[in-house]
Amino acid sequence: MDLSAELIAWYNDNKRDLPWRKTTDAYIIWLSEIILQQTRVEQGTPYFYRFAEKYPTVTDFAAAHEDEVLRLWQGLGYYSRGRNMLKTAQLVQQQYSGVFPVKYNELIKLKGIGEYTAAAISSFSSNEAKAVVDGNVYRVLARYFGVDEPINSPKGKKMFQQIANDVLDKARPALHNQAIMEFGAMLCKPKKPACGICPVRLGCVAFKTNATTYLPVKIKTVKVRKRYFNYMLISDGKEVLMNKRGEGDIWANMYDLPLIETTELIEQNELLKLPQMKVFGENIAFKNNPAIIKHVLTHQQLFIRFHVLDKFPDKLQSGWFYTDVNNLENLALPKAIFIFIKYFFNF
DNA sequence: AACACGGGGTT
DNA sequence: AACCCAGTGTT
Fold it and tell me: Where would I find the HhH-GPD domain in this sequence (predicted)?
């Protein structure tokens, strides 16, 4: 048996029971694939059910409002996925009459669908012979064939896509793609792969040369920026002053609180002297001495403090608005903001 | 080619 | 703390 046949045989015996594998509906598969981008199956599954239930068809999705989509997406991260989904749903509704495309060349044009997702949807929904290359596939191929070209260099990406195409079983691409990804996720894991029970270890270069620890190779260029967020919570217990974020920064179009960002960590007495504080009015005071919350993103570390102010400002800045405390659950809030607000208002 | 974009699990 | 997850879009 060749590699593909071995992986498919393994898959048939060991696959997990995942809901999106029970359909060939391109729309449902699209939902699952976008949700699972850079996201573990266990984390994404509840969101998959949530979206599939709320929007059973792409027509239902296209009718949604962005606020509603982001609220459903809350907590999953990479929120541009949610915003792009709405744009794509609307385009599919208008230009494809609500019939979700199944061909790679159509799918790749859509917002939020790149090479991986186009290959996944086209193969799973219409058995088009396109090979998926995700993190799992990079790992399996790098190890099995002993390829040490970095998976995140342009050259490496081309190379692995080519290998994936060569290995693909053109007669059953859907099954092959599921198999190689499941194999990478369950057996050929990043750390401590289960080589002892691996059906293809005798053909695996990394196993034979004891190199699984070093493959795949990845270029790392992590520069993490530190940012200091001073949030103001102002509320009389019934209403609370909120802010809607704009584009061009993290958490685009989501909701947070009035924010003063500083270049370093500062204490409340220093904060009071800042010119930005003037918008909150004269003779203001803090009602708490907040802890520093560290919130880690891919390229940023946020050091967040939530300051409770004692009175409403006289006028509002752009993006600010009052909302009823009971309406907070309808707003899409970043995780760290949500946790604090939930705690503060004792949800 | 490099970077931005979240949140969470594993080691 | 480092690494990675069923990646994509922008510059």
Answer: 35-186
Q: List CB contacts of A117: < 8 A, sequence separation 6 or more.
A: A30, A33, A34, A37, A107
Q: What confidence tens digit (pLDDT) does each residue in A250-263 have?
A: 999 999 999 999 98
Give the pairing type, strands A239-244 and A255-256.
antiparallel
Q: What are phi and psi of A69, to 5 degrees?
A: -65, -45
How many whole angstroms separate alpha carbon A67 and alpha carbon A71? 6
Q: A303: part of which helix (H) or strand (E)?
A: strand A300-308
pLDDT category of residue A223 using cuts at 50, 70 and 90 = confident
* Cβ neighbours for A274, distance < 8 A, ≥ 6 positions apart: A260, A262
- Contact between A231 and A306 under an 8 Å Cβ cutoff? The reply is yes
- How is residue A122 written in tokens? 């086209």
Residue A222 pLDDT greater than 80, yes or no: no
Query: What is the set of active-site residues of A?
Result: 33
Closest CA to A66 of A290, A212, A203, A247: A247
Residues 146-175 in A having a C-beta less than 7 A from any atom of strand C are none
Locate the DSSP E strands across A130-176.
Answer: none
Q: What residue type is A244 in one-letter code?
A: K
Rounded Cα–Cα distance for residues A347 and A341 (Å): 8
Which sign does the torsion angle of CA A22, A26, A27, A31 carry? positive
In a domain, A106, yes or no: no
Whole-number distance in Å between A133 CA and C8 C1': 14
- Structural domain boundaries, residue A267: 225-344
Tokens of A99: 């019939």
- Domain presence at residue A57: no
Nearest in space to A212 (alpha carbons), one of A132, A162, A134, A141: A141
- Name the residue with tokens 């179009």: A253
Tell me, what's the pLDDT at A221?
74
The answer to whether A80 CB is within 7 Å of strand B is: yes
* pLDDT digits 0-9 by tens, A139-182: 999 999 999 999 999 999 999 999 999 999 999 999 999 999 99
State the CATH number of the domain containing residue A234: 3.90.79.10
Instruction: Report CA(A316)–C1'(B9) in Å, whole number.
Output: 41
